[in-house]
Amino acid sequence: MTAFDYDLFVIGGGSGGVRAARLAGSLGKRVAIAEEYRFGGTCVIRGCVPKKLFVYASQFPEHFEDAAGFGWQVGEASFDWKKLVAAKDREISRLEGLYRRGLENAGTEILESRAELVDAHTIRLVKTGQTVTAERILIATGGSANPHAALPGHELCITSNEAFDLPELPRSILIAGGGYIAVEFANIFHGLGVDTTLIYRGKEILSRFDSDMRQGLHKAMEEKGIRIILTDVIQEVQKAPAGGLIARTLEGQRLAVDAVMLALGRDPNTQGLGLEAAGVAVDEKGAIVVDDYSRTSVAHIHALGDVTDRVQLTPVAIHEAMCFIETEFRNNPTKPDHDLIATAVFSQPEIGTVGLSEEAACRKYPEIEVYRAEFRPMKATLSGRSEKMIMKLIVDAASRKVVGAHILGHDAGEMAQLLGITLKAGCTKDDFDRTMAVHPTAAEELVTMYQPSYRVRDGERI
Ligand code: NDP
């Protein structure tokens, strides 16, 4: 028995914190976890999960339209925003309950309070003022939407937090940003019938993705009726005298909309946590600095997930938590592996991707082969929808390894998960070629692109 109240104190009940607390508890450690809001964190409460539910909701108008090509006549459809929000709330409460039950079953003490560090071993529970001590501390407080405080009128805008619970569905919305959240919500709102405009400062949306994915999605979104403004930013947001908002842009546009949503990245939640008092170092963005084992500048304090600003993804936080437990409680030092993370953008069409974009691969390898297919998916033949699917494999010519795989189209996220295994396993293009196709699927294209579409040597297409 140590002199501390707990073997492990976890601050933050999101994906990473809950996983670590649960695993440590099930190992018989004395564990407490503090959460100031709701268990489940951003992903469950106001991120990935409600977002995906809203994506499903927003896809129905296209399903109704497509049905006609298959002989169905669908009557007049109507949509009830409040019903969707209520159904989403019920599902989230159910999931939150599962998170709590998992912690309880592992013997973890649940503390519904904000927790702040007093010193390197002492934590204060803000709700009661009580202080407790712990041998090890894990900080997993996540991140929050960048409020863009420098923007005049930013307080009139919403972020993804509010977007999930708007009292009414706006008739029109302007979304700022060109990343995951901006693109996903532009498609959600458009699908639900909202007149949607996206404004992004760069030359093309989704700056870190493969150019074919970026351009292909841009085209598909515009064809659906989403307006995309590039190389421009909002300069000011004001209330319009007749209701709604007016956004003025740097390039002189004046946009009258019901709502403005900012999706300009997420900041680490480190404000007021007492990190200085505990001696925990942060970087210039306020993210907690950690080593390869998620250890902070104080050896017995660890941090993981979005608060460390490594890769802001739920599965990454969970993986980091499992590595933390292996290292600290199972005597098996394990570094989180951040290489070749498959991800999806739940836009419409979806993007699924793993590995290097063509542009990044060109910078890394002297010669690459690009296998590219663009085609109309089978369902579109009868539905009449013009949307195209794009599949792309990037191969290092010297080793024949597939170093990047990118898909734009239905179920791209599902396919990206499986492609993630092949890239992780180091599969070569020859492994893809000798794999039998599953017919008729869209994914069979991935194993039937036998000839390169083009090669790029020293940055030049040949
Ligand atoms: P992203 O980092 O994806 O995108 C932020 C966007 O905001 C970029 O387009 C960026 O431009 C732009 N931006 C940043 N600051 C400014 C500014 N001052 N003025 C104008 N534009 C600005 O962040 P998101 O907020 O979309 O999402 C946060 C994180 O959450 C993501 O990084 C992702 O890891 C995760 N996420 C994952 C999802 C998934 O897996 N499907 C879904 C949603 C979120 P530029 O590109 O030029 O820097």
From TrEMBL:
Its cofactor is FAD. The active site is at residue 439. Residues 341-449 form the Pyridine nucleotide-disulphide oxidoreductase dimerisation domain. InterPro entries: FAD/NAD-bd_sf (IPR036188), FAD/NAD-binding_dom (IPR023753), FAD/NAD-linked_Rdtase_dimer_sf (IPR016156), GSHR (IPR006324), GSHR/TRXR-like (IPR046952), Pyr_nuc-diS_OxRdtase (IPR001100), Pyr_nucl-diS_OxRdtase_dimer (IPR004099), Pyr_OxRdtase_I_AS (IPR012999). Binds 1 FAD per subunit. GO terms for molecular function: flavin adenine dinucleotide binding; glutathione-disulfide reductase (NADPH) activity; NADP binding. Keywords: Disulfide bond, FAD, Flavoprotein, NAD, NADP, Nucleotide-binding, Oxidoreductase, Redox-active center. GO terms for cellular component: cytosol. GO terms for biological process: cell redox homeostasis; cellular response to oxidative stress; glutathione metabolic process. It catalyses: 2 glutathione + NADP(+) = glutathione disulfide + NADPH + H(+). Gene3D superfamilies: 3.30.390.30, FAD/NAD(P)-binding domain. PROSITE patterns: PYRIDINE_REDOX_1. NAD(+) binds at residues 177-184, 265. Residues 6-321 form the FAD/NAD(P)-binding domain. It holds the Pfam family Pyr_redox_2. Disulfide bonds join 43-48. FAD binds at residues 52, 306. It comes from the Bacteria. It is an enzyme of class 1 (oxidoreductase). Its EC number is 1.8.1.7. Catalyzes the reduction of glutathione disulfide (GSSG) to reduced glutathione (GSH). Belongs to the class-I pyridine nucleotide-disulfide oxidoreductase family. Homodimer. This is Glutathione reductase. It comes from Pseudorhizobium pelagicum.
